[in-house]
Amino acid sequence: MNFDFTEEQTMIKDSVSRFVREEYDFDTRRGIIESDEGISRKFWSMFAELGWLSVPFAEEYGGFGGTVEDIAAVMEELGKGIVVEPYASTVVVFGGLLSASTNEALKSEVIPSIIDGSCMGSFACVEAQSRFEMADVATTATACDGGYKINGEKTVVANGGTADKFIVTARTSGSQFDRSGVSLFLVDASTAGVTVKSYKMMDGQSAATVTFTDAVVAESQLLNTTGEGMDLVDQVMPQILMGLSAEALGIMATLNTLTVEYTKVRQQFDTPISSFQVLQHRMVDTFMACEQTKSMLYRGLCQAGEDDAHELSKTVHALKATVARYGRLIGEEAIQIHGGIGMTDELNVGHFVKRLMMINVTFGDGDFHQKKFNQLSYSA
After folding, report:
1. 131: which of 34, 155, 182, 358 is 20 to 30 A away, CA to CA?
2. Contacts of 122 (CB under 8 A, 6+ apart)
3. Residue ranges covered by each domain of the chain
4. Which CATH architecture best describes the domain 7-119?
């Protein structure tokens, strides 16, 4: 089987790689994080001009018409620079849900604005009590004149402070833990009754708590049939998790490279520590961990083109569990081998590790996905 990228994918990948290498160094990233918004609008406009924001969207909306393989190519390179601009939350997650929506009018209205960079979006799905179970929804959407009235609170909404629109999970029927009865609404951040409180996360990314108090949205803002929102989420989640895993893979590869380079210049007993056999063994272990993660990601990318949702779900759960396990191994080894300086904010190693830790708990940690994988395996 040929695992080489196509010519178009290679061009996109090289374009992102060149940007990270030439314009997004560690000091530039730190400056962006310390700014008021925590992102660079200038770079976001550049992403739009270079066509990166159009990658996964259909050509009828002005997109590139790409696949999950194209998303993975972009996300891996963005991971190598731990880019804080909201590509994952806006294009992969928010955009992915919109693309899968059955509301054609909504898609025609919003997707072009994502592509041209004028709209940033986020998926507001996590609640204080829900942990990783997205079907645990206490936020309610009650029918009223003109549409629905939403009440509730969403936490850890990625890049919520800069988002222009939210896709919100809200319960239109059933009890709090029912999978059915959850609906997806597109809500403008400026809607009356929507309050956004932004804050920084440990990895430098921003998030927000979004509160809805009698926020009225029209029925036309439903992404699909009332009460069937989780079906749409399940359809898009494999693409989302593979995109995040590709970002993690880029981080792992970079940490391995940084660590090997450091061992060649760090000396003990008048000799580079790269000559110490015990460290060589540890670096081989981290190299193999990275390669196994890549293999699992590529397996998922291959299955994404097949018509077997059950097997794809199993692979994606296994992939996320693999990222959690090996991401921790590679991160801990990188910090240990660098020594005390690896723990400081002045060195980029710790920042890569923190981003890996955040990816681990996004849409479920390793234990959560291992449990899901086991359930699917036993039910097969």
Report:
1. 34
2. 86, 89, 90, 93, 94, 157, 158, 159, 160, 163, 166, 167
3. 7-119, 122-227, 230-379
4. Orthogonal Bundle (1.10)
